[in-house]
Structures
1.
Amino acid sequence: MGKCETATASIGIKILLSDLVLQINETNFTLIKELLRRGYIEDDNDYFNEIYSKITSINKLPENHLELKEYLIREFTNNGSYNKSKGDSIVIPTLDKGCLLDKALLVALKDILTMDRWGHDRYGSNCISRPMDFDLSVNMEKYAEIENKEIVFILGQHSG
């Protein structure tokens, strides 16, 4: 069986994890948990997202806003990426490239274009297009009280 690689272009929010976590309070607790669950680390080709997903898994997140803030600060400060050796399959956690707390979280709010590619170790190029007849605006009212966010164009890729 082959695997699927999906690339998606979206409009979304970009915010440093440190900025987001420090804003957690009783009022925005649920919204920030939603952002954390839907988001990904801006990660060119490292392994920050593997560690991020373990920290933010649904079963691990505390249900109290103060406990959540404390948990995330501790975990995001003490975890970063992995060093992986290709031949030996050795995986070593590292903070060489910084900790997660210093990384940006990207949350897609509106997908513009998505493309899947199936197969075993495929090589070559492929592409997709869409007419420029769509609205690029995003309703940000829900996220109004989240400070230090930036509206960005996101190109995400998922392999699995």
2.
Amino acid sequence: MSINWTPERFFYSHASKDHSVTNIVSEAFIMLDGNYELYFAERSLVGSPLIHKLKAELLNSNALLCAWTDNASILETSQIISFELGMAFQ
């Protein structure tokens, strides 16, 4: 099975409370002016269960970027981010 990763796609793992950090990262990718996509989970989690959607999006990404902030350290959020990191590692 061949996976076509064009454009390059990055999965951005972060706490949804970190709007300011997320906006900076999004703007930085726009400034790269390259053939990149940045996937933000909270912007498109419709149509399937969370775990299935995250797994599919991770498998369709070249890399995972993680913003580990104080907000990301909160238990509920850290569990989701840890899942995303583990899935990406596999």
3.
Amino acid sequence: MRFAIACLLLILPLGGCMSYVSDPRGPKPEFKAALSAANETPPTDSQGYGVVEARYMPTMQTIEWRLHFGKLSGPIIYAFLQGPDGVGNERADIVPINPPIESNVQRGSYTLTAGQAADLMAGRWSVEIRTERYPAGEIRGPLVLQP
């Protein structure tokens, strides 16, 4: 019985170590964007809010995201991840999050080019939601790399 307990005491700490082994395919950077009216250009008077959580998978050059939102002025007419387009437009619509958006949670994924991935990692991407009342953008927020 003592031998069994001693073995258990040696094995249990090793099990916890497994959670610290890194993914052999490399890290998956995570991003977050807090969408608000104050982040729009120009700012709006919307009460809307949103949060985007995203993960970039470098080995597949894919970004996956989940968008949560609420209190918008009306239905979304257009939502997208935006960033530099490589020809001078710093806020180009890169990844559409297309309507109809029938719930306040949307998920999606998109394969990036090498340049898009570099801009994402450099903090040059944001998320914007447009509605009928605010066709130029109701809420917006930068995608920020999480520590």
4.
Amino acid sequence: MDRFLTLIVVGVFLLGGGVIFVTSSFGEDSVNVGIKATVPESLELSYWIRWSTGGQDPYEFGFSGDATSIDFGELEWNENLGIWLPAKYYTVFLIARTSGRPYQIKQTSTGLVSGDNNLNNSFIMDPDYEADDKYSNGVAQGDMPAGDSLGEAGLAAEGERIIYDSNSGKSRIVRVYYGISTGEPGTPGEPITGDQPAGNYSGTVAFTLTLK
């Protein structure tokens, strides 16, 4: 028995004059660990507003800034055109989050009203999409997804208007420009002439995010 134990401990056997080493070989073993995460379902429309002077991009340094509302202020008389125009124009940026579901962003407006008078035929809007618009992480959003589309320019207070129609369901930054019509050919609306009654005109614009 002692001799047998010695052979096990030493692990050496003499066989035909040769030496064989007994080694121990282990196979693979594995365990599985569960992983879980829950992404909440979302339906949210975010926005921010920028003002800019005529013809300037809403992020043009020195010619734009943040805003909390669309406030054209006191209009200025343009001698060359013979109409009233604002010094500032406004861009509303919209971004929808729908958990990847197709959606539409729509707009309605009460217009600009003062008593029995209004500027509804002069208050205009124009949806836009810019591939270079960036998210908060500084990454440009890129081209509009295939199957998505913009609404058309027109009077802001002319019923319910589609701003953005998304079949892809992807979150994208959409612009809506707001201004007062200049009456130029091919553009919507009518200019505000010297016949327009004086007054403080006000109203609201509402945006709605709906699933398709």
